[in-house]
Design goal:
The protein has helices at 22-45, 52-74, 76-88, 90-102, 113-137, 144-168, and strands spanning 7-9, 12-14. With 170 residues, the protein is mainly alpha-helical. It has a two-stranded antiparallel ribbon. A hairpin with a 2-residue loop joins strand 1 and strand 2 (12-14).
Length: 170
């Protein structure tokens, strides 16, 4: 993938426009984001979690860092696409977090709206990264016809998964 901005990786400067293998960055960031996302989720939904301000500081700094990373690697249009579709995907986010909470005998409504901001944002960022990895794993970034098929598959598979979880939890 072509970088949309300058970035230093392992002490080496990669200038804007240079090529970098997405397969090198996805494992690190998928694992890294999963660790921060799980810790944010646990803090937000545990019975004795930290104050909401701490949750916002902890998660907010990480989320801002990931957004800067996304802008550098994927560009402004892709990040804009992420936020547009995340607004459309609240059904999926709500459904899956509600499903995860059901394992602990809880539901989304047991918590104030302010607590959901950080876990929801991590979910948005993580699913964005999964889509980007799928695009690169299928070599669809520069092939518009293939990319359209991958995007359609992603939307259909996500919708089917969310719908299944939604009705299975009822």
């Amino acid at each position: 993938m072509k970088l949309r901005g300058d970035i230093k990786i392992n002490g080496k400067l990669h200038p804007k426009g240079s090529e970098i293998s997405g397969l090198k960055i996805y494992p690190f960031f998928l694992f890294h984001m999963l660790a921060f996302g799980v810790s944010g989720f646990v803090m937000a939904y545990s019975d004795e979690g930290p104050p909401t301000l701490f949750l916002y500081l902890f998660g907010g700094i990480a989320i801002l860092s990931y957004i800067i990373f996304y802008l550098t690697f994927f560009g402004r249009d892709e990040v804009k696409w992420m936020f547009i579709n995340s607004l459309l995907g609240l059904f999926g986010i709500y459904t899956e977090i509600n499903w995860i909470l059901s394992f602990f005998g809880k539901v989304v409504g047991d918590y104030p709206l302010t607590v959901h901001v950080i876990p929801f944002l991590f979910y948005i960022l993580y699913t964005f990264l999964i889509r980007q990895a799928l695009i690169d794993l299928t070599n669809s970034r520069e092939n518009l016809a293939r990319r359209k098929m991958v995007d359609q598959f992603y939307v259909i598979a996500s919708t089917l998964l969310y719908t299944y979880i939604y009705f299975a939890n009822r």
